[in-house]
Each structure stands twice: as structure tokens, then as C-alpha cells.
Amino acid sequence: MDTIVNKVSQSGLAEIDLETFYDEATREIYDIKEQLFMGLMLKEKEFRDFIKSNDWSKYAGKHVAIICSADAIVPTWAYMLVANKLSGVAKSFVFGDLNVLEFSLFKEKIDGINLDDYKDQRVVVKGCSKKPVPVSAYVYLTEKLTPIVKSIMYGEPCSTVPVYKRA
Q: pTM value?
């Protein structure tokens, strides 16, 4: 009787599954547009009053994207005031839309990888995730891995697409 051999496990491939980096906390948008006078401008006194009286606890434990969706000039200090109120309340926050927020979350996890673990390795970056992994995360991971690995492949260990191979 023939023995079944798992050639994938014996291949010496290192696997990275970005889906495991997904943070389950709620994502939320904070839009300064709601505080604009006539949808056009920010009045400092009214905005500062709002900042003081707003219930910021609704952002507790959430990841927040700070934006202004209106075509208005918003002074930088306004975003800084919002960031100050979210600090210590929100799990994290960024200036930008949900795509910027998502990349920021994955970038933080990728930056936490011990790259020495992948030095001179053949790496498979797993694809086909059930959770939303932005393309930007795959691109950033490729940037980090390329200088140190022998090769990068995308997909599943049994069926990969070559991305990079050291000369």
C-alpha cells in the first residue's frame, strides 16, 4: 500500500496569511462636514463648543477614519482637535477614508512581523481570504519581504503564482 505524502508540508515554504491580521473592531467614519456652517466653512467658536460637548464615548474601542466629505477648506487644527478627543477613547484613528484606515491597521501588523523569520525563505502569501484584506496590504508586505526572501509566491501552497525570485 502506498503512503500518502504531504509534499506541501515538506516543501519548506513559509506561509503568511494576511487574513489573520484582520482586526475585528468596528470601523467608523467621523465626518467634519456635519459641523460646517452652511456646508461651506468651519466657525472656530461653534466647532470648539461642539468638540467640548460631543459624546466621544460612542467611538470607544472603534477604529475611526476622520474625513471631511464636503468640498470645503477645513483648517488642520480642526482635525487635530478631533484627534485629541478620540485619543484614549477610540482603538485607533487616522486622517483619511476607510481604505486609508484599513491599510493603516494592516501596516501596523505587518510592521510587527519579525522579518528575520523569513530571511532567505521561500514565502507563500496566502490569498482567497474570507475577511477583507486590502490590496495595499499585499503590496506593502511584498515591499517588506522582497529584500530578504528567496522568493515570494501568491495563492495556496498547492497552487501558487510566482511574484518574485532572487536572481
A: 0.86
